[in-house]
Amino acid sequence: MNKPNKAFWIIAVLALLWNLMGVYQFYLGSFALESIRDSVYAEEFTIMESLPSWYAIVFGIAVFTGVLGCFLLLARKKLAVPLFGISLLTVLVIEFYWLFATDIMEVSGLVAAVMPLIVIAISIFMYFYSKGAAQKGWLN
User: Fold this and answer.
1) Residue 137 — left, alpha, or beta (φ > 0 → left; ψ -120 to 50 → alpha)?
2) Is residue 41 part of a domain?
3) What letter would DSSP give residue 103?
4) What is residue 5's DSSP assignment?
5) By the 8 A CB rule, do 97 and 133 touch?
6) Cα 43 to Cα 48: distance, rounded to the nearest angstrom
7) How many helices and strands (H and E) does the chain possess?
8) Is residue 20 part of a domain?
9) CA distance 64 to 80
10) Domain count, the chain
11) pLDDT of residue 137
12) Is residue 23 in a domain?
């Protein structure tokens, strides 16, 4: 097994922090939605309230597989790769649903697409980065 470079550790820690912020967003959206009512437009809050129950389940899978993937990446385990794959697939489901199956684009305009696109980009990066780390022998 090869020793990873310093960038590997920096990326893994930053990814863990990013995913922990996702866990917090999951908590807010699933268990403390009322606490953010005053921080978003009323129409946006209505959309959040009307999300189907499966959305919270898939969101939870996305963030918790991402967190677990980060811990396994830090532990240098190959199991991180499929977990980041699951996280990516579930991120695609929730973000495409948010953007195209709700009225969020009509309510908030193109700005509503910024964060979902960042989440998708980071999820893609983490999947392929973990896959590359495994190919370089950094994960066992």
Assistant:
1) left
2) yes
3) S
4) -
5) no
6) 9
7) 6, 0
8) yes
9) 12
10) 1
11) 95
12) yes
Angle at 135 between CA 87 and CA 93, to 5 degrees: 15
Q: How far is Cα of residue 64 from the mean position of the Cα atoms in its chain?
A: 9
Rounded Cα–Cα distance for residues 25 and 106 (Å)? 22
> Residue 15 burial (CB < 10 Å; 0-12/13-18/19+)?
buried
Does some domain include residue 1?
A: no
State pLDDT tens for residues 114-140: 999 999 999 999 999 999 999 999 999
Q: Give residue-wise pLDDT tens across range 67-78.
A: 999 999 999 999
Q: Residue 11 in 3-state DSSP? A: helix
Side chain identity at 46, as an amino acid letter?
Answer: T
Residue 2, both tokens: 């090869």
H/E stretch holding 60: helix 53-74
Q: Of 76, 82, 50, whose CA–CA distance to 140 is shortest?
A: 76
Site of tokens 């999947």: 127
Domain span at residue 11 reads: 6-135
